[in-house]
Amino acid sequence: DGETSPTTSMAELDHLVQVISKSHLETCQYLREELQQMSWQNFLQDEVESYQSKPREVMWQLCAVKITEAIQYVVEFAKRIDGFMDLCQNDQIVLLKAGSLEVVFVRMCRVFDSQNNTVYFDGKFAGPEVFKALGCDDLITSVFDFAKSMCSLHLSEDELALFSAFILLSADRTWLQEKLQVEKLQQKTQLALQHLLQKNQREDGVLNKLRFKVSALRSLCSRHTEKLSAFRAVYPDIVRTHFPPLYKELFG
Amino acid sequence: LKEKHKILHQLLQNSTS
Q1: Where are the alpha helices (DSSP H) in chain A?
Q2: Which residues of chain B neighbour A245 with C-beta distances below 8 Å?
Q3: How far apart are CA A102 and CA A10, in angstroms?
Q4: Which of A3-12, A37-46, A76-85 has the largest mean confidence?
Q5: DSSP-assigned letter for residue A42
Q6: CA–CA gap between residue A142 and residue A73 (Å, rounded)
Q7: How does pLDDT run across A111-146, given as a tens digit for each residue?
Q8: How far apart are CA A48 and CA A53, in angstroms?
């Protein structure tokens, strides 16, 4: 808005930061304090082996359930973002269909232990070897590498919240009907993120590093879709009858 | 799209808790 004075603009950005951070904290699934109480407990060797010896379809189903749970929190996050619910229903669905898993990957850095290369999963911290039965070692490695590199940015909860909103409001998703509306929301979110990074005295490079994450996220999600297609080709009935309906809606 | 995403649509319709 060209007529907004810089002062009002700053206040508006501060307000946006506040609202989006609050939405993030209300819907983040795990509070950092809760995770600390779990004392970063890792799976024992026999527990790791038990996951590894599960049939491929059982492990896929378990992961689909966990992803779906995490996505439900992202949907709640989206609903609380200023302006999201004012978009047409088609665009709300398009943005969540394309962006919800990306936000799950972004949020993963909150439950990731960089030192041990483990992620909180099914009650304890799991290394990549826990997911061996899925038969997607390359994708799992990439997801862990992504979480590690997100962690290395040491984003605050506020910064993570704004970046998640920025990802969700991507105006270049296919099938958007009111692209301009989404563009405006995304630009505003980006300004708020820039404003926050400056306020937090982060070095200039952080925003550029985050821009690179956008393409990394898209690649992770398209590879997830490819792996699911390959799995479905072998186990169509398992997906049809045992996978969470929301997961099938989003990725089917 | 709404027809193909009934659960997501329902989640969006539910009031925020």
Answers
A1: 6-26, 32-37, 45-52, 56-80, 89-107, 137-151, 157-168, 179-199, 205-234, 236-242, 245-251
A2: 7
A3: 29
A4: A76-85
A5: B
A6: 23
A7: 999 999 999 999 999 999 999 999 999 999 999 999
A8: 9
Task: Identify the pLDDT of residue A38.
Answer: 74
Backbone φ and ψ of A34, nearest 5°: -60, -40
Q: A132-170 burial string, b = 16+ CB within 10 Å, else e?
A: bbbebeebbebbbebbeebbebebeebbbbbbbbbbbbb
pLDDT range class, residue A7, cuts 50, 70, 90:
low
Closest CA to A101 of A214, A217, A210: A217
Q: Is A121 helix (H, G, I), strand (E, B) or coil?
A: strand
Q: How far apart are CA A105 and CA A99, in angstroms?
A: 10
Residues of chain A contacting residue B12, judged by C-beta atoms under 8 Å apart:
75, 79, 85, 89, 92-93, 96
**A19: Cα separation from own chain's centroid:** 19
Q: How confident is the model at residue A206 (pLDDT cuts 50, 70, 90)?
A: very high
Three-state SS string over A213-227 comes to HHHHHHHHHHHHHHH
In the prediction, which pLDDT does B11 show? 97
Cβ distance A110 to A28 under 8 Å? yes
Tokens 């946006």 correspond to A16
If 0-12 CB within 10 Å is exposed, 13-18 middle and 19+ buried, where does residue A44 land? exposed
Asked if B1 and A90 come within 8 Å (Cβ–Cβ), the reply is yes
**Closest Cα in chain B, distance from residue A128 (Å):** 30
